[in-house]
Design a protein that fits this description.
Blueprint: H1 2-21, E1 30-33, E2 36-40, E3 49-54, E4 62-66, E5 75-78, E6 96-101, E7 110-114, E8 121-126, H2 132-146, E9 162-163
Parallel strand pairs: 2-6, 3-6, 3-7, 4-7, 4-8, 5-8
Antiparallel strand pairs: 1-2, 1-9
């Protein structure tokens, strides 16, 4: 009985430690750019940036085009690679957390996914672990962290050095 009481009293402490670190078991989509990583937040309230999606192009602040091939995309996610960079997405103080919100929030980016141009970013996704929305949120999150504002200017793509 004493063992059960000790076990029962340790569970809240373990849960508190996990929540305090902001890390829950399981992997979250992540990309690495130079020495910074951008990851989908496991807990939305800990995110550095919140993004939302819309089906109305006039309500969007960022347009992300779904490319037909990896060659035409600014950012591509394909699961059939033999190996990923082992330390590409290790959490560090420079890690930016991005949360996908159900509704737009003030100045947060609002993303419109489209198959047609023009677009701020072009993505290609063939993945079992990344959805189109995950990839778009990470790309916008990476772009928002690189410069002032959201989106890219013509000829400037902050994702040139991105990896998984």
């Amino acid at each position: 009985m004493l063992r059960f009481k000790i076990l029962a009293s340790s569970i809240p402490l373990i849960a508190a430690a996990v929540l305090a670190r902001g890390v829950l078991p399981g992997s979250h989509p992540c990309i690495a750019i130079a020495d910074t990583s951008v990851q989908i937040a496991s807990m939305p309230w800990r995110a550095d940036l919140h993004v939302a999606f819309t089906d109305d192009p006039s309500a969007a602040t960022v347009r992300v085009q779904i490319a037909d091939s990896a060659e035409t995309a600014d950012f591509a996610v394909v699961d059939d690679v033999d190996s990923a960079e082992a330390s590409a997405c290790e959490a560090n103080p420079a890690t930016r957390l991005v949360a996908i919100s159900a509704t737009p929030d003030g100045s947060a980016p609002v993303i419109y996914l489209t198959h047609d141009g023009p677009a701020d970013y072009r993505i290609f996704v063939r993945s079992k672990s990344f959805s189109l929305r995950d990839a778009a949120a990470l790309v916008v999150g990476a772009g928002a962290g690189v410069g002032a504002g959201v989106g890219v200017s013509a000829g400037h793509h902050p994702l040139e050095a991105a990896s998984l």
